[in-house]
Design brief:
Length: about 500
């Protein structure tokens, strides 16, 4: 085995583990298939037929990049739910690699980076769910946002060539793509952009112009797609669609409710203490130690942020850029990157928290808007475990194993509790059991019912599964009080 392959072997194994876990879940049919996912697969089919949507059907704020990627996979491997989900699995494998890169850039420590990658490979149920079942851009948002953070750290470091036009253009392009894909990705890009503006205000303006050009190119689909409906697009970007989720009746009351959702309902989902669709989760006694570790990690990361930089390098850890055998953890070049990285990781959390408290999205208790927080959480956890490893040796790996086993137990428990399985449906009334889909389609075909009306959560799923032979326009209510919104009718051509 060559030296390069031997060094790469741990990461190869970690990425393989991440892929294998998801393939097993797909093999046992652990994920439910609903109309949100069906809309994405229908978009991919329509793209192959010549359509060019800029956004998720029925919306003006979530870009269609995922649909184009799935369309490419459909062209190569055929149209199926499995193919669509395999696209998400492969993209997530890249996220694992980028997570390693961000942690390595911040800490200069290979062990910390490997532990970060392991935490990505076996994550809590929330991250497994929204990066395996596509709902329009979750995976791409995480991937592009993480890449923007990594490249921002590279641009900020003294080792970067400040005149590198390609790097500035690429960073701006990533930020623009993130804006188009999903506004939630601003949690990554806003703190990175602010930090670059502050740190490099005296280093020339050409880089900023190139970044602005890249942003214009990357976000062009958003501007072109919303050219005639800009007011509506801005309102939807700010959460108009979910404005009814906060009911206090005034700004401060709504903020209080959203902060409550963040702390009491959202963080437990982030840590894997409960499932996104339920108040239930893994056994509480299993959650005690992981919760203590996470809280201790955040305390350690905050103390490290506010404390003085370490003057003495950590023993026996190699720093990027040094030849083999030199036992130095950080030097004068890499220490500023570590400091910047810590600020950026906290910046991601603060940006998301502020947005969650001020915008209607904060009324959502599922935790699905917390996904950007996994990058700082995993980097902080790995950094704390590495500090522990230097003090107690291999016992730190046991602490890492506790978190991974807890995440795995929660995932297995959710998969075995089927129905509902691992699902994006957080209201039971929207979780239409797919067990009888085949019988339903046979009945409709046999009785001339291939055109009609249905509720949102059945219509688009049946449309995709029947290869659009059966079209049920989504104009029937599914709420118990018979409320209906025209937004459920996401694809106007079906009603013509």
């Amino acid at each position: 085995m060559t030296t390069a392959l031997r060094k790469a072997a741990p990461m190869i194994a970690i990425v393989a583990l991440a892929i294998a876990l998801r393939l097993i879940l797909l093999a046992v049919n652990a994920f439910s298939f609903n109309s949100d996912e069906a809309v994405l697969t229908l978009m991919a089919r329509h793209i192959l037929q010549g359509e060019r949507p800029a956004f998720f059907y029925g919306q003006t704020y979530m870009g269609s990049l995922d649909a184009y990627l799935v369309a490419g996979a459909f062209a190569l491997a055929g149209e199926s739910i499995l193919v669509e989900r395999l696209v998400q699995v492969m993209l997530y494998a890249v996220i694992v690699l980028v997570g390693y890169g961000v942690a390595r850039r911040i800490t200069g420590n290979r062990y910390t980076a490997l532990m970060t990658a392991l935490l990505y490979a076996v994550p809590p149920v929330l991250l497994t769910l929204y990066t395996t079942v596509s709902q329009g851009g979750h995976v791409e948002m995480l991937l592009v946002g993480s890449l923007a953070v990594w490249l921002g750290l590279y641009l900020e470091s003294d080792t970067a060539r400040m005149s590198s036009k390609l790097m500035w253009l690429a960073w701006g392009l990533l930020v623009g793509l993130e804006f188009w894909i999903w506004g939630l990705g601003l949690a990554f890009t806003v703190p990175t952009a602010l930090w670059l503006l502050w740190r490099m205000r005296m280093r020339g303006w050409r880089g900023y112009l190139l970044a602005a050009l890249g942003f214009a190119l990357g976000s062009a689909p958003w501007w072109l797609g919303n050219f005639r409906t800009m007011n509506l697009a801005v309102m939807e970007l700010l959460g108009q669609r979910v404005a009814g989720t906060a009911t206090a009746g005034n700004l401060f009351g709504n903020m209080a409710l959203r902060i409550f959702n963040f702390v009491v309902l959202g963080l437990p989902v982030l840590f894997g203490l409960r499932f996104p669709w339920s108040a239930q989760g893994p056994l509480l006694w299993l959650a005690v130690l992981p919760l203590v570790l996470y809280l201790g990690t955040l305390g350690y990361a905050l103390r490290k942020l506010l404390g003085r930089p370490q003057a003495t390098p950590l023993k026996g850890v190699l720093s990027p850029g040094y030849p083999s055998g030199v036992g130095i953890a950080r030097d004068k070049r890499s220490e500023p990157v570590a400091e910047v990285g810590r600020w950026l990781m906290w910046g991601i959390g603060v940006t998301l928290f502020v947005g969650f408290a001020l915008m209607p999205f904060g009324g959502d208790p599922t935790g699905r808007y917390f996904q950007p927080l996994y990058l700082p959480l995993f980097v902080f956890t790995a950094d704390a475990l590495e500090a522990l490893r230097e003090r107690v040796g291999r016992w730190a790996w046991l602490m890492l194993a506790v978190i991974l086993i807890f995440n795995l137990v929660g995932t297995v428990q959710a998969a075995l509790t089927n129905p509902p399985g691992i699902t994006t449906q957080f209201e039971a009334i929207t979780d239409v059991n797919p067990r009888y889909d085949a019988e339903l389609m046979d009945f409709l075909r046999a009785n001339g019912g291939t055109r009609g009306y249905g509720s949102y959560w059945a219509s688009f799923r049946i449309a995709f599964l029947s290869n659009e032979e059966i079209i049920l326009v989504a104009r029937l209510p599914y709420k118990t009080d018979l409320r209906y919104t025209p937004r459920d009718d996401r694809y106007a051509p079906y009603g013509k």
